[in-house]
Design goal:
By secondary structure, this protein is of the alpha/beta class. It has 4 domains: 7-139, Rossmann fold (3-Layer(aba) Sandwich); 149-316, Rossmann fold, CATH 3.40.50.300; 320-389, Orthogonal Bundle (Helicase, Ruva Protein, domain 3); 405-462, Arc Repressor Mutant, subunit A, CATH 1.10.10.60. It is built from 19 helices and 18 strands. It has helices at residues 15-27, 38-47, 64-73, 89-97, 110-141, 152-165, 181-190, 209-217, 234-237, 253-265, 291-296, 302-308, 325-340, 349-357, 363-377, 390-404, 410-428, 433-440, 444-454, and strands spanning 7-11, 31-35, 52-56, 79-85, 102-106, 143-144, 147-148, 171-174, 199-203, 218-219, 231-232, 242-246, 267-268, 277-278, 282-287, 311-314, 346-347, 382-383. The strands form 6 sheets. It has a 5-stranded parallel sheet with strand order 2-1-3-4-5, sandwiched between helices. A 5-stranded parallel sheet has the order 9-12-15-8-16. Strand 13 and strand 14 (277-278) form a beta hairpin. Helix 2 (38-47) runs parallel beside helix 3 (64-73), helix 13 packs across helix 15 and helix 17 crosses helix 18 (433-440). The longest helix has 32 residues, at 110-141. The radius of gyration is 31 Å and the shape is elongated. It starts with 6 loop residues before the first strand and ends in an 8-residue tail after the last helix.
Length: 462
C-alpha cells in the first residue's frame, strides 16, 4: 500500500477496466487519472507529473509502445508498467526493451497489480534517494560555505577567503548591493578558529547616528536620557568572535575616530564610562561605496581606511560571472521547493537564455527574488519566459532590437550599447549620477558628458 500519495496515470481503451483500476488504486491511497488512449496520456504527461504509468499495449491512435517512445524522446521522468493480453507476451518484452519497468498479463488478479506497483514504488524511492544524493554531492562541489559559484572570479574569492580565515587581520569586502558580501564575511568566520565564538553583524547605515555609538560600544545607566540600565554594545557581544560592519562607508566621522581606536588598542569605552574594557574581536567590514573615493572627498578617514583595508576582497557583480547563473537558478529553485512545498523542476530554455543575457543590476539578490516570483506564478513545472518580470523582458527586447538590423559598424553599435547601459544605470540609481558612474565603472565627468551627448538628462528621474 502506498503512503506517499503517488500519482498514477492509467491508460486503457476499455472503460470498465479503467474504472476498476481507478477504484482499486484510490483505495490504496494513490492519486489516479485515467485516460482512454496514448494520445490523451501524452497530453497529461506533458502538463503534470506522474510517478507511475499503467498502460495497455494495444490501443487506437497512439498505442503503448509508441507512448513509451514519446516518453523517452521527451525525457519524461516516470515509471511505466505495461498491460498486455495473454498471448501478447512478445509485445510486453518489446515494451521492456523500449523503457517499460515491468508488465502484467491480462486478465489479472487485483493482488498482481498491487504487488507489481509496490515493486515499482520501491524502485522509484531508491532511484529518488540516489538522485538526491547525487544532486547533494554535485551541489556541495559547486558551493563554498553556502556561496554558489564555479566561475574563475568566484574561485579567486574562495581562495582568498581560505587564505585569510586563519588570521585576525581586518578584512574589507567591496562589491555592489546584492552580490553576497555578508556571505563572504560569514565564510571567513566559519573557517576561522573563532567559528564557535559569537558572530555579530550590524548595518551601519540602518541605525540612526544618535544611537549608533551606543549600539556599537554600549552605555552605562544614566549616560543619556533613555539610558535606564547598563548595556553592552556589539563589540562586547562579539568578544572572542567576529563583528561584521556592513556599509562601513555610512559611519559618521566622529565614530570613525572611536572605531580606529578600538582597532588599534583592542579596547572599548562605553558611553558615559571612564574606564576602558579590553576586547578580542576580529572586524570584517563591507562597503558598497568606493572608500578610496570617500577618502578623497573627505567623507572617510584615511587612517581608518588603511586600518580596515589590510586585506581586500572584491565580490564580482553577477553580470561578470554569468557562468554561475544556471547554478544559482538551480540552487534557488531547490531552496524554494523545500520552503514552499512546490515541485518546480527548472526554467525553460528560452527563459534561461533571457536570464543569462540580462545584466542583473540587483545581482544575486535580484536573481533570487526573480526565481521566487516565477515559482509562485508558474502553472507548470517550469518558469517560462512569459512570467519573467517586465523589466527583464524589456531589457532583452532592447538588446534584440539593437542586433536585429544590418548595422555592422563597431563604432555605431558600441555607441548604441553604451547608451542602453547608461540609461539602465541611471534608472537603477534613480538618477543618481555618482552611483551610476560607479556601476558603469567610468568617471563622473565622463558620465556627465555622455548623458548630454546621448540626450539622457532626465533618465531615471521619473
Amino acid at each position: 500500500m502506498s503512503d506517499d500519495k503517488l500519482r498514477v496515470l492509467i491508460v486503457d481503451d476499455e472503460e470498465d477496466l479503467r474504472h476498476m483500476l481507478s477504484m482499486l488504486l484510490k483505495r490504496e491511497n494513490y492519486i489516479v487519472k485515467a485516460v482512454e488512449n496514448g494520445e490523451s496520456a501524452l497530453k497529461e504527461l506533458l502538463t503534470r507529473e506522474f510517478d507511475l504509468v499503467l498502460t495497455d499495449v494495444r490501443m487506437p491512435k497512439i498505442g503503448g509502445l509508441e507512448l513509451l517512445d514519446e516518453i523517452a524522446k521527451r525525457d519524461i521522468q516516470t515509471t511505466v508498467i505495461v498491460m498486455s493480453a495473454f498471448g501478447n507476451r512478445d509485445l510486453a518484452i518489446q515494451a521492456i526493451k523500449r523503457g517499460a519497468y515491468d508488465y502484467i498479463d491480462k486478465p489479472f488478479k487485483k493482488d498482481e497489480v498491487l504487488l507489481t506497483l509496490e515493486k515499482a514504488v520501491e524502485r522509484l524511492h531508491l532511484k529518488r534517494e540516489n538522485e538526491e544524493l547525487r544532486r547533494s554531492q554535485e551541489s556541495d562541489s559547486l558551493t563554498f560555505q553556502n556561496i554558489v559559484g564555479q566561475s574563475p572570479l568566484m574561485l579567486d574569492v574562495f581562495e582568498t577567503i581560505e587564505k585569510v580565515a586563519g588570521f585576525k587581520s581586518t578584512v574589507l569586502i567591496n562589491g555592489e548591493s546584492g552580490t553576497g558580501k555578508e556571505l563572504v564575511a560569514r565564510a571567513i568566520h566559519q573557517l576561522s578558529p573563532r567559528k564557535d565564538k559569537p558572530w555579530v553583524a550590524v548595518n551601519c547605515g540602518a541605525i540612526p547616528e544618535t544611537l549608533l555609538e551606543s549600539e556599537l560600544f554600549g552605555h552605562v545607566k544614566g549616560a543619556f536620557t533613555d539610558a535606564t540600565a547598563d548595556k553592552n554594545g556589539l563589540f562586547l557581544e562579539a568578544d572572542g568572535g567576529t563583528l561584521f560592519l556592513d556599509e562601513i562607508g555610512e559611519l559618521p566621522l566622529a565614530l570613525q575616530v572611536k572605531l580606529l581606536r578600538v582597532l588599534q588598542e583592542n579596547e572599548i569605552r562605553r558611553v558615559g564610562e571612564n574606564q576602558a574594557s579590553k576586547v578580542d574581536v576580529r572586524v570584517i567590514a563591507a562597503s558598497l561605496k568606493d572608500l578610496q573615493e570617500e577618502v578623497d572627498a573627505g567623507n572617510f578617514r584615511e587612517d581608518l581606511f588603511y586600518r580596515l583595508n589590510v586585506i581586500s576582497i572584491t565580490v564580482p557583480p553577477l553580470r561578470k560571472r554569468k557562468d554561475d547563473i544556471p547554478l544559482l537558478i538551480e540552487h534557488f529553485i531547490k531552496v524554494q521547493n523545500e520552503r514552499m512545498g512546490t515541485r518546480v523542476a527548472g526554467v525553460s530554455p528560452e527563459a534561461l537564455q533571457i536570464m543569462i543575457e540580462y545584466p542583473w543590476p540587483g545581482n544575486v539578490r535580484e536573481l533570487q527574488n526573480c526565481i521566487e516570483r516565477g515559482m509562485v506564478l508558474t502553472s507548470t513545472d517550469e518558469i517560462e519566459e512569459s512570467i519573467l518580470p517586465e523589466r527583464i523582458l524589456e531589457s532583452t527586447d532592447e538588446l534584440k532590437q539593437l542586433f536585429a538590423g544590418d548595422e555592422m559598424s563597431i563604432k555605431k553599435m558600441s555607441a548604441s550599447l553604451e547608451r542602453i547601459l547608461i540609461k539602465r544605470a541611471l534608472e537603477k540609481t534613480k538618477g543618481n549620477r555618482t552611483n551610476a558612474a560607479k556601476l558603469l565603472e567610468i568617471s563622473h565627468r565622463a558620465l556627465l558628458y555622455k548623458i548630454k551627448d546621448y540626450g539622457l538628462e532626465t533618465a531615471g528621474m521619473e
